[in-house]
Design a protein that fits this description.
Elements lengths: L12 H5 L19 H5 L26 H8 L10 H60 L1
Protein name: KINESIN-LIKE PROTEIN
Organism: Salix koriyanagi
Length: 146
């Protein structure tokens, strides 16, 4: 007969037969589905929306402007977190994330407008170069006729 570990308690009839509480009845079962933070806190989930704040996707957010100094300050900002104030720390981080998202959206819109402007300028430059070469060729032809 194999020796049993002396540190274990003796087997009970419920553990031997597989009786006791079923998986569904156990307290603290790990199969509980977690809800998103927005649902739990009854707040708007910022990550689920396309934009932060009152700006809609198609609308122009003209009132949001950032300077280079403001962007640098936002990126280099150090949060003053407290050791055991988890709710306060969560609010600080979510506020910083929201401001960073607004800044990123602003930057993306500015970048898109700069790309469009660059394309228009390139088209205008090509047209003026073409006109200039045509004018030069025309002047050479007129100069040869005289």
């Amino acid at each position: 007969m194999a020796s049993r570990n002396q540190n274990r308690p003796p087997r009970s009839p419920s553990s031997i037969s597989g009786g006791g509480l079923g998986w569904e009845e156990q307290e603290g079962a790990t199969n509980v589905e977690r809800k998103p933070f927005g649902t739990v806190n009854r707040k708007l989930d910022v990550t689920a929306t396309s934009d932060v704040g009152s700006c809609a996707e198609g609308s122009d957010c003209g009132n949001v402007e950032f300077t280079k100094e403001e962007v640098d300050a936002l990126v280099n900002e150090r949060l003053k977190m407290k050791k055991f104030d988890h709710k306060g720390n969560l609010e600080l981080v979510s506020e910083l994330n929201a401001r960073l998202k607004v800044c990123i959206k602003w930057f993306q819109k500015r970048d898109e407008s700069h790309v469009e402007e660059e394309g228009k300028l390139q088209i205008a430059l090509d047209a003026s170069e073409k006109k200039c070469t045509e004018t030069e060729a025309e002047m050479k032809n007129q100069g040869g006729d005289i």
